[in-house]
Write a structure and sequence with these properties.
559 residues, alpha/beta, 16% strand, 8-stranded mixed sheet, 3 domains, Glucose Oxidase, domain 1, 44% helix, 8-stranded parallel barrel, TIM Barrel, Enzyme I, Chain A, domain 2
Length: 559
């Protein structure tokens, strides 16, 4: 260290001490540890046979062997995530499995080997890079996500071809701060059990690694330019996932302040967990519901453990995807009953299937759309496929006879969407001889719906603001697009004003929120004053959200 204390010796030479980097808060929490810098195999030079003319049949055999290895790895990753996290995250690996079986992709690799007489490693690099660029050039959030999936598969195949059976992150010491340019879902499976925190150059709150990190409580800071070059291997790092800042090689004073803040934060978490089953009542006496966003029974069990007042959003997509045919009415009733059982005595809002955009059902053979996020998704798609809508509605009506269920209608844009949805529900109820139709909740995800609330409520009983998509449409910024991250601001004044308008126009109807903004503790006082009375968040966030509600005041809800 120099006399003035500005530098500190590290593995890579003299580095500035107490260097502050600013990014974006992606997953909450405070952590410290030694940096483990993870470099992408796709950016490394490939060492292959020096043989000038590869044997085509040998390269085909190597491709087949690598593919079988990766398929087994994907299955193992899926099982691991299902056991340790949630079924919804495991769906990522089912999607990768389907992609690796895509005959068009495989044929392109094969033709590259045969036509260019190159080794399979180089063929994979060329073909997969073309696919990545093709998806990224599309400009949509969904295609950007597909690009990362393709790149992830390329990495897996290259490792398999090298004979690498262990994932590189298995070498990372427990308690490390993982530093990377970007992370794939397969990486997240390994860092979730080992890393104290994650710092990435490219990352958004909607990215797969962010979702996984939040599930297990790992803080993540993203959008720090050239972060791999800025943080040396083995450097001491402080990560603030609340404010979105990172300190490299902190001096003793900075470390002491951080550790004190971390102790307070962890103590608050313990206290909040102890009170998790108590009602969330504001300082001025308003009771607020804090519910869970869930996908599976495991999620419901975790929600119950964390004091959920119910289910604010049950995502049904996992019940429909990765099947060969549409599930039957009986199957849906059975699977939903099983998943919701841990919270059977509490109300549950179940969302109708929300596909289109970035999610598809192979057995429906949906037509390709140039701009899928501006196309037929949510209720728009369900109304176009009556059989798909009716089987869900009938199952939910039958379920409502057993427990307190509400039906959420996704992607409502105009009042007529909600009118038609109610008509379908009421017609199905008459057919089933069910006298009481469960409450219908309109999901407000578009600016048009936000400005049509009073008309939408003629067919809806309550509202739930889906801030992830609403932000995307209001700010014209894809939520998984790192290049537009500075514009994807859920708490932007324009968003907050729109939320206030929604609550004001809703009158006495309950307005809930189920997007990521609902879990932003520092914004909760503003949301309460706007009129939000139900927060639906990831199960682990429930105790902290309840505590934030208890410390805030809520303006009276308009009559």
């Amino acid at each position: 260290m120099t006399p003035n204390g500005n530098n500190q010796e590290t593995e890579e030479g003299n580095r500035p001490q107490d260097r502050h980097l600013t990014g974006s808060a992606i997953a909450p929490g405070l952590a410290e540890g030694k940096a483990f810098v993870y470099r992408d195999i796709l950016s490394q030079e490939e060492a292959v046979s020096a043989e000038s003319m590869p044997k085509v049949d040998v390269e085909h055999a190597r491709l087949d062997e690598a593919r079988e290895t990766v398929l087994k790895e994907l299955d193992a990753s899926r099982r691991r995530v299902e056991a340790q996290m949630t079924l919804s995250l495991a769906d990522i690996f089912r999607a990768h499995d389907a992609m690796l079986r895509d005959p068009v992709l495989l044929q392109e690799v094969t033709e590259e080997i045969e036509g260019e007489l190159i080794h399979v490693e180089e063929a994979i690099r060329r073909v997969f890079c073309r696919w990545v660029e093709r998806f990224r050039a599309n400009g949509s959030t969904a295609k950007a996500g597909r690009a990362e999936d393709v790149a992830d598969l390329a990495r897996r195949l290259l490792r398999a071809l090298r004979g690498i059976r262990a994932h590189p992150l298995e070498e990372m010491p427990d308690g490390s701060v993982l530093v990377a340019q970007r992370l794939a879902p397969s990486d997240a499976v390994h860092f979730c059990g080992r890393a104290a925190a994650v710092v990435v150059e490219f990352g958004t709150p909607g990215a797969h690694c962010a979702l996984m990190a939040r599930q297990v409580g790992i803080p993540v800071v993203g959008n720090i330019p050239e972060v791999v070059a800025q943080i040396p291997q083995g450097a001491s790092v402080l990560v603030d996932g609340l404010e979105g800042t990172v300190v490299v090689n902190p001096d003793e004073e900075t470390r002491a302040r951080f550790q004190e803040r971390r102790k307070r934060y962890e103590a608050e978490g313990v206290a909040a967990k102890a009170r998790a089953c108590e009602a969330a009542v504001t300082v001025d006496g308003v009771t607020v519901q804090v519910a869970a966003n869930i996908t599976s029974r495991a999620d419901a069990e975790l929600a119950d453990e964390n004091g959920a007042d119910g289910v604010g959003l049950f995502r049904t997509e996992a019940l429909f995807m990765y099947r060969n045919a549409l599930p039957s009415e009986d199957e849906l009733v059975e699977e939903l009953s099983h998943a919701l059982e841990p919270l059977a005595e509490k109300p549950s809002i179940v969302r109708l299937l929300d596909v289109g955009g970035d999610k598809n059902l192979p057995y429906l053979k949906l037509p390709a759309e140039e701009s899928p996020f501006l196309g037929r998704r949510g209720i728009r798609l369900l109304l176009a496929y009556p059989e798909l809508l009716n089987v869900q509605v009938r199952a939910l009506l039958r379920l409502s006879e057993q427990r307190a269920v509400q039906v959420m209608v996704p992607m409502v844009t105009v009042p007529e969407d909600m009118d038609r949805a109610r008509s379908v529900v009421e017609s199905a109820a008459r057919e089933l001889g069910i006298a009481r139709v469960p409450p219908l909740v309109a999901m407000i995800e578009t600016p048009a719906a936000a400005l049509s609330v009073s008309d939408i409520l003629r067919a809806a009983d309550a509202l739930s603001i889906g801030t992830n998509d609403l932000t995307q449409y209001v700010m014209a910024a894809g939520r998984q697009n790192p290049l537009a991250n500075e514009y994807f601001r859920e708490d932007h004044p324009a968003m907050m004003r729109l939320i206030r308008i929604i609550c004001q126009d809703a009158g006495a109807a309950t307005v809930g929120m189920c997007g990521e903004l609902a879990g932003r503790l520092q914004v909760i006082p503003d949301l309460l004053r706007a009129g939000i009375r139900l927060f639906s968040v990831a199960p682990r966030l429930i105790p902290l959200v309840k505590e934030a509600v208890r410390r805030a005041k809520a303006a009276p809800k308009p009559a």
